[in-house]
Amino acid sequence: MENLISVAGGEAHLCTEDHWALAEMQGPAEEQAEPIVSTPYLIVTLDQWRHAWQTSDPRIANAELGILIAPDDDPAILTPWLKALPLIALQFASFSDGRAYSQAMMLRNRYGFEGDIRALGDVLRDQLALMRHCGFTSFAVRADKPASEAIKGLSGYDQIYARTAVNPEPLFRRRQRAGA
To answer: From CA 52, how far away is CA 100, in angstroms rounded?
Structure first.
């Protein structure tokens, strides 16, 4: 994936190399027996993953799988497999659709997911700080916007008042603890 920003160790950086690729699976495995892509790291939709898991789809037999969650999907479905999943991608259908923020918070806070949560779709600079506080750790910035400019959206917003996935303690408690 190009135009990718990743957060590791609390620092954001531009990714020059990303091993993950979106899988393009059309139709049943019998009609498309070749592997989907040449990389062993595939991001598949929830429906593709369910089908592949139930049928042992040979197109992804040797792949490490990440799951793409659509805005309408319930991330709770994945709770039995969260420890084994390295990546969950959440889809932003449009700039104004905020369901992926809630999905990321649920994955981090309610279900304890510790892997990479990636933002895909209509991802812009103005959203990155809030995405990070909701638990996102990588951001596939929209292709028509340079990631080198978008990364600036992650600086300057470290003091969020409310609790976040990054800092589960609200600011007033952090200040109380610092003063005590």
So the answer is: 24
Q: Is 44 exposed, middle or buried (0-12, 13-18, 19+ CB in 10 A)?
A: buried
- Following DSSP, what letter does each residue of 16-58 receive, concatenated? S----EE----S-GGG--S-S-SSSEEEEEHHHHHHHHHHT-G
The first and second tokens of residue 130, run together, are 């809030």
Its pTM surpasses 0.85: no
Task: State how far the Cα of 104 lies from the Cα of 75, in Å rounded to an integer.
Answer: 9
Largest CA distance in the chain: 66
pLDDT tens digits along 97-142: 999 999 999 999 999 999 999 999 999 988 898 899 899 999 999 9
